[in-house]
Amino acid sequence: MNIVDYIVLGCMAVALVVGILKGFLKQIFAVVGVFVVAIGTSYLSPYPEQWLASVIENDSTRSLVALIATFIVLALVYGMVTALISKLVNKVHVLGTVNRILGAVLAVAVVYLIFAVIIGFLLGTSETFLPNIKKLAHDAFAESWVANNIYKNNFFGDWLVQLLGEKIPSVLPA
């Protein structure tokens, strides 16, 4: 085992512990929350902007204040709702256990996918793209147990490199 193995396995171990502590629902709620709060802010910020018209005269300042206030309120409400749902699920012992196991699986899967992309980019890019880093990465991955066993058939990383290769032909090989 070399440094690549220790980095990947260490990140997976940390993800496993964090996934168990946070649980599946909190992780999913966090991802969904980014989109819900962003979309909600874009739709709802015109209302406080109208209310602030008598208080703030400058249009851009009023718009910014309304946007920030709407974002904060929606984030707080979303956080309270998700915390309540998570507490209710964790009170039922069986559901709480399943939630934590699925949280661990999800967290490790996310780390796996992140490293799949990193390995795909480091090994799948053209020779002219960061040649020194590419040589170091190739040498390190050639000796890595994780890269040769877990990422032997790196479908996700290879697919992403191929997809981006069509968009950025100068960096990625065709």
TrEMBL record:
GO cellular component assignments: membrane
Keyword Transmembrane tagged: yes
InterPro entries the UniProt entry points to: Colicin-V_CvpA, CvpA-like
Compartments, as annotated in UniProt: Membrane
Alphabetically ordered keywords of this record: Membrane, Transmembrane, Transmembrane helix
Ranges annotated as spanning the membrane: 6-21, 28-44, 64-89, 101-123
Primary site of residence: membrane
Membrane topology label: Multi-pass membrane protein
Gene Ontology BP, a term: toxin biosynthetic process
Protein's name in the database: CvpA family protein
